[in-house]
Specification:
Blueprint (H helix, E strand, L loop, with lengths): L11 E5 L7 H13 L5 H13 L5 E3 L2 E5 L5 H37 L3
Parallel strand pairs: 1-3
Antiparallel strand pairs: 2-3
Length: 114
C-alpha cells in the first residue's frame, strides 16, 4: 500500500534564540523577535531575508527555508530587523482599524444607522 502524498511545507525562516555573549535584555529582545517572526506573512519574511542578505549576515538556506541564529546577528542587523518588525505591527494595526471602520460604515448603510 502506498503512502498518501504529503504536501510540501512553505518556506519559513527559523532561528535559534540561544545566546552566550548577550545581556539579559538583549537576549529577551531577540527571544521575543524569534517568536514574533513566526507571525509574519510570506512577503514580510522575504523582507527579513533581504535584510539578512544586504547586511551580509550569516544564514543557511535549503529546501525547507532560510535559517539563521538570531543571537549571532550583529547589533546593526538586528536593529534593522526590529525596525522592520515595528513597521509590520504598525501597518497591521492600521489595516485592522481601517477594516473595522469600513465594516461599521457598511453596517450603518445596510441598517440605516449613523
Amino acid at each position: 500500500m502506498r503512502k498518501p502524498f504529503k504536501k510540501r511545507q512553505p518556506r519559513t525562516i527559523r532561528m535559534s534564540a540561544s545566546a552566550a555573549v548577550l545581556t539579559t535584555e538583549e537576549y529577551d529582545q531577540r527571544k521575543l523577535f524569534s517568536e514574533e517572526v513566526k507571525l509574519l506573512t510570506k512577503n514580510e519574511m522575504e523582507e527579513v531575508y533581504r535584510i539578512l542578505r544586504t547586511c551580509k549576515a550569516e544564514f543557511s538556506e535549503n529546501s525547507n527555508g532560510v535559517f539563521f541564529d538570531v543571537s549571532k546577528l550583529p547589533a546593526e542587523t538586528f536593529e534593522k530587523m526590529q525596525q522592520f518588525m515595528i513597521f509590520c505591527k504598525k501597518n497591521r494595526d492600521e489595516f485592522n482599524i481601517r477594516e473595522e471602520e469600513y465594516r461599521q460604515a457598511q453596517d450603518a448603510l445596510v441598517n440605516g444607522r449613523d
